Amino acid sequence: MVLTALILFPIVAAIVIPFLKGEKTVRFYTLIVGLVEIGLSIPLITGFKPGAGFQFVEKVKWIPSLGLNYYVGVDGISILMILLTVFLLPLTVLCSWTYIKKRVKEFHVALLLTAAACIGLFSVLNLVLFYIFWEAMLIPMFLIIAVWGGPRKKYASIKFFLYTLAGSVLLLVAIIAFYKSAGTFSIPELMKHKFGLTFQIFTFLAMALAFAIKVPMFPFHTWLPAAHVEAPTAGSVILASVLLKMGTYGFLRLCLPLAPEASVTLAPLMVVLSVISIIYGGFVALGQTDIKKLIAYSSVAHMGFVTLGIFMFNLRGVEGALMQMLNHGITTGALFMLVGALYERSHSREIEDNLGLSKYMPIYMGFFLLFALSSFAFPGTNSFVGEMLVLIGTFAKDVPLGLAVIPGALLAAAYMLRLTLKLAWGEPSKAKEWKDLTLREIVMLLPLAFFVIYIGVAPGIFLKTIDPSIKTLITHVEKNSNGKLINKHTIPSYGERQ
Fold first, then answer.
1. Which of the 8 DSSP states describes residue 66?
2. Of 212, 231, 367, 440, which is least surrounded by CB within 10 A?
3. Bridge partner list, 59
4. Which of 25, 30, 79, 29 is nearest to 54 (CA)?
5. Widest CA span of the chain, in angstroms?
6. Buried b / exposed e along 143-157 (16+ C-beta atoms within 10 A)
7. Which neighbouring-strand residues pair with 74?
8. Around Cβ 218, how many Cβ atoms within 10 Å?
9. Nearest Cα residue to 123 out of 17, 10, 207, 260
10. For the chain, which ranges sit under pLDDT 50?
11. Which pLDDT score, from 0 to 100, does residue 419 have?
12. Sign of the C-alpha dihedral, residues 226, 228, 233, 235?
């Protein structure tokens, strides 16, 4: 019942909020709900056994005439995403503490419902439930941008809604096609069916478009900068840390297992789009003057590394992709929190309006430097682990391809160092009038800083958790690719190296 509790508890807690009195009560209540949610996830951490397949499985008949079940479970591919979502919930409450001043009850209801939908999506093993949670996330996130967003919130929220909805329609078409062909919505059962190549290509393209929009991959990325810039801080954190991962998770959970031969056949297309995303995202980020836009475009580049790693179809590549999903959630979420904290003081996201912070806000700049180093994968930080594994997987597959993405890594260093140096040592404007980070802000950043360093120096426990599921996935794709995928060299997983 662990997964059901994690999904239902935020929903039940959200129902109570309208009956609470006082904004402060609502904030403390939602914070406690977030902490309790972390407590509910502890059995997942202590009871998960790497390599044991789907665990914590719950299967209950829902609509027997359609063979539809409530079916949830976790494996090494989903557990880190569930824990990331749970872990971020109380932090999003803290970063909204003073930022959200109107419709406080409604905002916290939207936060809890978004978290429940994301946890549900990462837990389900049924296509219909996957689609329901995919869509369920859309409404509260749309409201977070549309109600509590910036001056262009209507434009940003409608663009976010329409892009995601367009992808969702194609995802629904693919789900119906799978049911019509195999007679089941169960993902594990569908993995046992062998579909023809034409059918696989059709369903892969339909699903891939939905996931590519969510990632977002070039050229489907244009909704992201607008949504990030206009969303409140908590909205940006959820978007960057969790929602973008739903797209890459979709590739790993549905595209590769259900359409393995098509995944290999169309991999060159996905790789080209990934490389363009890395280079394009880096160049556009380099030219930004708005800090939030810069970080938004950097997400396009970082997520390009994730999709590149996935379509290398080797252990290191997919290992790196999953680690990069986790690390991007930690680092970029923290950077958006810092931008939000700065905006509350300067009321501007322009770099030129926020110069010279190191003298007057040393604690702020200390955190910013750490997360900036992580963002461009400096050795010893978490992102270095994910990006390095993706590069190892890419070079193992194709050396010229590996060389092609190196400029993307250099661009990341260029735009983050430029931003950090300007914020730290630029000519001070109004910074002397601003106070450094408060205790609340330090508390919300410290856990993220801890994981930046911990994963950077000791990633073993995370790799040990994800490796068996990745090997199972790659073996499944290799066996069902009709000879199109042959990994010549078997690389030992983390557990096998011990």
1. G
2. 440
3. 71
4. 79
5. 69
6. bbbbbbbeeebeebb
7. 55
8. 22
9. 10
10. none
11. 92
12. positive
